[in-house]
Amino acid sequence: MAKGLDVGTMNILSAKQERDETVFVQQRNSFVEIEYSDMAEQMLSRSEVLHIRKDDQVYVLGDDALNFANIFNQETRRPMSQGILSSDEQSAIPMMKLIIEQVVGSPDRPDEKVFFSSPADPIDSDLSTLYHQKTIQSFLEDMGYDAEPINEGMAVIYSDLADNDFTGLGISFGAGMTNVCLAYYAVPVMKFSVARGGDWIDEQAAQATGTQVDKVTSIKEDDFELDFRTDVGGVEGALSIYYENHLDYVIDKVAEEVDEEDVEEGLDVPVVVTGGTSMPEGFEKLFERHLEDADIPFSISGVRHADEPMYSVARGGLVAARSDEDQAGGANAGTSGAEEEPVEPQTDDDD
Predict the structure, then answer these.
(1) Residue 58 and which of 73, 90, 134, 153 are 20 to 30 A apart at CA?
(2) Contact between residue 319 and residue 338 where contact means Cβ atoms under 8 Å apart
(3) What are the boundaries of each domain within the chain?
(4) What are the residues whose beta carbons fall under 8 Å from the beta carbon of 170, sequence distance 6 or more?
(5) pTM recorded for the entire structure
(6) Is pLDDT above 70 for 323?
(7) Are 59 and 77 in contact (CB under 8 A)?
(8) Does CATH number 3.30.420.40 belong to domain 163-309?
(9) What is the pLDDT of residues 70-93, one digit of tens each?
């Protein structure tokens, strides 16, 4: 067996293969603190709410944290910020460890392979991803896994571009960062991230409208559409404005990096977009429209949304992990979400 793990700022997801089905487990990467009482802890346990007690406080984690935050008019606390472990949150490491343990579970055998997503260092920030990457790797190895990082953008290529020989531009629009990877036959030609994502959109919209960030996030996740027919003065109108600004920003950075990397002009590649921030209806068409105006030296054969945007990165990690196990064992097993085996996964310790 093997697993893939998407370590995202907003959500953490795992993927594993069970017979002909890929099984995903997901938890929101957040927590909220409430005052301890015997009755409260009994009710949380009875309702199977993920929580832990520490001294006189109870921490509700995962999917239930946002519900509790809205009920008690609080903001959720996040173990990660801008795609990596938050240096401002003292409880980041123990909370992340608990959520990861809940999502990935125990290994099915000693040294089971797991590929976990790791962002590239952002080109528009001094943030380093190395400490984050090594900490997550340590969590997983302590659990008994043989853990290896995979660039988040590359995971999108493995997940969604098997039908194009793992060649194309994969863009993961996450909450903390946006990761970009251009690959040619499963070999990365260009990979980078920008330190903006869905959180930046939510924060800007919240500031513009005087609304709590968690409330903006809930509105965005509840049938929000990028149709630009909403009232400009409301939260949805502000979300639309900042979504468009974010897409322009990402596309500008793609054009800059293509020039810097001197990517071959004769390429004709598909683009696949994925990630939780890409979920609103209309995102794919809006991105394609903005991409048409970009000054990129190679041609784009088309833009498509991943079949299951929330699961792409975890699935890509699973594809890489299964390929690695097959190569190590001399097997020729099929991979989840792919019609053929990719070449050996391209990973970097400093992604």
Answers:
(1) 134
(2) yes
(3) 30-77, 163-309
(4) 153, 154, 155, 156, 157, 160, 161, 180, 181, 182, 183, 271, 272, 274
(5) 0.85
(6) yes
(7) no
(8) yes
(9) 777 778 899 999 999 999 998 899
